[in-house]
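For this section, I looked closely at the sequence of one protein beside the tokens encoding its backbone, which the following lines show:
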Amino acid sequence: MDHDTAGDPVSGIKWTRRTTEKIATQLRAGGLDVCANTVAGLVKQLGYRLRVNHKKLTRRRDPGRDVQFSYISAQREHFAANRWPLVSVDAKHRELVGDFANHGQTWSRQPIAVNTYDFPSQADGVAIPYGIYDLRANRASVFVGTSHNTPAFAVDNLAKWWLYHGRRRYPHTSQLLVLADGGGSNGAKARAWRVALQQLCDRYGLTITVCHYPTGASKYNPVEHRLFSQISKNWAGRPLDSYEPSSTTSALPQPPPA
């Protein structure tokens, strides 16, 4: 097992990629009649443990990461001080609409029966949730796409939010701050996103400032933990069998004081 052994240089814990059944088979071939359970007890005595992958490896740290976070923080404080609107936006991955399993648990008398396999051909369609969270008002809007997550789709959603909510809540301002992830339909390198934003500015006389979070830092985007986390809690353990929402809330839970 020497070539199949890995170990932690700090704790001394060792593990192997071979299963106890494979080890028992090799031992029986060598004349030792043991079962997989006996092998499991022996390898534990030798310091082996069942191990899983640990997400600890990261790319080289971007030297401008802290500067970027400081700039975003300064922009947020500047807009908040002037009482200008600032929103956080993001899209989640495509979901199949139909009787498909969803992670989580929910209270019910009987389990909900869903399809055994997640075949797209059995779906009624796809749903792409795009969230816009208004930090000042602590309100959010979710727009659901039915085809693809494109820059045009992202800006259309932002335009609808401004038309239905933004300009009514903030009638005396032409400034808007948008916080977004570094990739995806509203990513920093998406030229179509910038072109569509300029068209939005021209249409409504807005000046839009966009701040992108660094790569791998989407968890700091407020829409993730203020909006989508609430959706995940509400939706846990139930299939997305319709485009219609099962329940609505007038406002999100109040954020902790800054």
